[in-house]
Amino acid sequence: MHDEVQVTRARVRSTDVLVVLLLAVVAARFLLPGAFDGAAVRAWSTVFVAVCLQALPFLVLGVLLSAAISTLVPPSFFARALPRRPALAVPVAGAAGLVLPGCECASVPVAGSLVRRGVTPAAALAFLLSAPAINPVVLVATAVAFPDDPEMVVARFLASLAVAVVMGWLWSAFGRGEWLRPPVRHGHTAGTGRAAAFLGVVQHDLVHAGGFLVVGGLTAATLQVVVPRAWLDAVADEPVLAVLVLALLAVVLAICSEADAFVAAGLTSFSLSARLAFLVVGPAVDVKLVALQAGTFGSRFAVRFAPVTFVVAVAAAAFVGWWLL
Fold first, then answer.
1. Residue 238 gets which letter from DSSP?
2. Which residues cross the membrane (predicted)?
3. 283 and 96 in contact (C-beta within 8 Å)?
4. How far apart are CA 307 and CA 167, in angstroms?
């Protein structure tokens, strides 16, 4: 009961902040009309609206599919479908992300459920990394965001799948049981059916992912308008630095994978290889994922898994980008 009160209060505070921000924007629009008429502001608003409107349909579809997977498909299905040997289970679990979509927020609890039901951790972690990165919604969104560069879809798929499989095999070879805290089973509220659970997940994930989409759109628009073009060109002209900068930007922004392609498409100063790093690193390791992983598997796991994942993701993106792009 106490936890429910705390959750309710947290939601009220978040809603209050959102309302205050919206009222401030509306008030500024009427009190300072001239401030919104400049060419830079118009360009900024155009980029921001374009990013959000392009990504919104894919974000909604991805949330619906993710909610269906997490609430309607029993986790025991995955345990029966995967091979018992970790060396074989890892690539199978990684490939399952192609047909079993889910966003980052959903893949962590699903992976926790797999571990709790006896699936080898290496396979569960491979699924955790692949599901938000190579599912059909993400690949279609990438194709729409890069209509003139269809090779970006293939590059994203290969690099992201490689990250999932390599990290699964690395955990199988070097991971220790004491680093991975067994996930705690959370009971369901009595009388809650699957339909109610599905709607609850959709509502939570849509608000959560939509907020990160807005942050990503704001950042992409700001980079295009506020940051001097010479600065962006200076970073973008250095291949290694450009890859590292966009990889770190993906970690900080923590954009939902259904929407990150449209943000990457707006970073036109950077090469395709650098933007590929943004797309590969984001769904594999970012600030919200590290927090989710620490809460599900423990901090000892997160502080080891996240840095190695970042290095593997950057290396995979750099290699695939050099090869295909």
1. S
2. 12-32, 44-67, 88-110, 122-146, 153-174, 206-227, 239-255, 301-324
3. no
4. 11
Tell me the whole-structure pTM to 2 decimals: 0.73
Token pair recorded at residue 125: 């972690």
Compute the residue count for the chain: 325
> For all residues of the chain together, what is the average pLDDT?
77
Q: Do 62 and 140 share a structural domain?
A: yes
Query: Which amino acid is located at 131 in the chain?
Result: A
Count of the separate structural domains present in the chain:
2
Which of 301, 313, 299, 159 lies closest to 250, judged by CA? Answer: 313
Residue-range definition of the domain harbouring residue 161: 38-324
Residues 153 and 270 in one domain: yes
Residues 94, 126: contact at Cβ < 8 Å?
Answer: yes
Local confidence band at 288 (pLDDT 50, 70, 90 cut-offs): confident
Q: By the 8 A CB rule, do 226 and 245 touch?
A: no
